[in-house]
Amino acid sequence: EIASQLIHNYMSNFYANWTEDTIPVLGNKTPRQAIKTVKGRRAVIELLKSYEHGEARRVKDQGGEPFDFGFLWERLGLERE
User: Fold this and answer.
1) Going by C-beta distance under 8 Å and a sequence separation of 6 or more, which residues neighbour residue 4?
2) Which of 24, 53, 67, 70 has the most CB atoms in a 10 Å sphere around its CB?
3) Three-state DSSP class for residue 21
4) What per-residue string of b and e applies to 8-27 under the rule 16 or more CB within 10 Å gives b?
5) How far from 20 is each of 50, 52, 75, CA to CA, in Å?
6) 65 — phi, psi (to 5°)?
7) In terms of Cα–Cα distance, which of 51, 53, 52, 29 is closest to 41?
8) Residue 29 carries which DSSP code?
9) Where is pLDDT greater, at 37 or 62?
10) CB atoms closer than 10 angstroms to residue 73
């Protein structure tokens, strides 16, 4: 339980400003900037999906509860496909 809470706190802090951070894989744009184009929007969606898949693998390997990236989808006004 403590380990799960530590992971959740770390992830919450790490992703707190993610929508406004420049990300190299997005062409050094912020996710908020990137979603203004069709190509950028697709890249942000794929990036968020990759985070969720990675989290699912972590839970499968290590157990615990998955971190919910839903707040990032919501902040950007994106819907999961």
Assistant:
1) 64, 65
2) 67
3) coil
4) eeebeeebeebbeeebeebe
5) 19, 19, 10
6) -95, 140
7) 29
8) B
9) 37
10) 16
Q: 69: which 2 tokens?
A: 């990236």
The type of residue at 74 is E
pLDDT tens-digit profile of 25-52? 999 999 999 999 999 999 999 999 999 9
Question: What is the pTM for the complete model shown?
Answer: 0.90
CA 68 – CA 71 distance, rounded (Å): 7
What's the token pair of residue 40? 């950028």
Is the distance from CB of 26 to CB of 18 less than 8 angstroms? no
Angle at 25 between CA 21 and CA 31, to 5 degrees: 40
Q: Which residues contact 26 (CB under 8 A, 6 or more apart)?
A: 33, 34, 40, 43, 44, 47
Residue 24 is classified by DSSP as: G
Q: Give CA separation, 37 vs 14, 28, 29, 31, 41, in Å.
A: 25, 14, 12, 11, 6
